[in-house]
Amino acid sequence: MILAWFPVDCIRGNVVIFNIVIYRINQSATGAILSPDGAIMIGVGIIGLGTVGTGTYRILTERAALIRKKTGLDLGVVHVAEIDPRKLKGKNIDRTMLTSDAMELIRDERVHIVAELIGGMDSASDFIKEALSRKKQVVTANKALLAEKGDELFALAAKTGCDIGFEASVCGGIPVIRAIRDGLVGNRFTYILGILNGTSNYILSRMTDEGISFGEALKNAQQEGYAEKDPTFDVEGIDAAHKLSILVRLAFSSPVTMKNITIHGISRIDPVDIGFARDFGYKIKLLAIAKKTSSGIEARVEPAMLPLNHPMSSVNGVYNAVYIVGDRVGPNLFYGKGAGSEPTGSAVVSDIVDLAKKISGKAVVSVPGLTVSGRHREAKSSRVPYYLRVMAKDMPGVLSKISGILSDYKISISAVTQQGRKLSGYVPIVMVTHDAAEDGLKKAKQAIDKLSFTKGQSVHIRIEEGNS
Questions:
Q1: pTM for the whole structure
Q2: CATH architecture of 386-463
């Protein structure tokens, strides 16, 4: 029961007359209560006021009336934890709800949903475990944590009867997880093609459009705030692999881990190869690729060439996209901002609303997690065409010798160009092969690189036609 005091529409002298209204309210096991007009009042705690945490806070506070109108839920931020006072500067946040102790927030009985938005591993894991042990619903955008420790966390969630929302962990504001989990639930998926890292995509876009080197494009990305001081996770494909692990688990119900994913980054991509790719009708992108075959799941993150007419080729700058093929629906393309304060915050809020509906009784179905049973069956690398560039002396018989070695490894040539632009006294011989096995191509490369008239290591790049 709650007492509410409301002023009567009259004043007698200097005295305001109040009516005392007594409301009987239902209080759930989680502490959610009904406001006088029947809206559900649910408290949210945000751990971390970085980019995503700030966006989440702003949406929940500035759009509270809109969310209430659409859902019938009163979602209120009641506690915020931030250890770094510098992140509070210039932010209009009620200081009475601030703490530097995340565990204090988690213990707060007014908090029904905990949003972990600090990233990293150990502290984030500890906070989520504590929240779940206290039977609090959890939302996270932490793809690395889910990829590395997801099984443990989702097992604890199941044990405590709670859920972990993770829409924001892949592609920021693009609702691809919700699409796979809910919208396309009647499909068996066969193919995923993703541009999952905005930093790498921005760098490759600048290299393609301006003909600049990787180093120069990276420097530009750092100056624009699109790349970290240490960009390793982004440019070496690790961030994209974390996200691919989550997508594969959802789409293929396979317990794929980072060790099951072939990972190569973009730091060795040369503008020369970007130019030749264009000549052959392709564009180089850092692609997250997953294919379901009769023998298992192939999962890889690496620079690859896409046909210029493929819709993913037009995804430039910091944008992300996921192209997914279902057996009933065919190909679907999801495109949008893959990072940023408000796009990612929007995805966090969508999970908060889902969990709030569960708390309120408006939805009784738990959010499916990432835990899958069984053993991951890893498929051999699929046969695809390859781009191959060899630096060789401009002399008779060179091309025939190289093509002979490729033939020895059952690799046939689809197209070839030998241009006269000399680089350090050598000319590039550039070929596109028919479908070939990756192992055979690597062995052929080793043999070609040992020839007396070739220089350095030849370059090969996978060609992904994007129609599997």
A1: 0.88
A2: 2-Layer Sandwich (3.30)
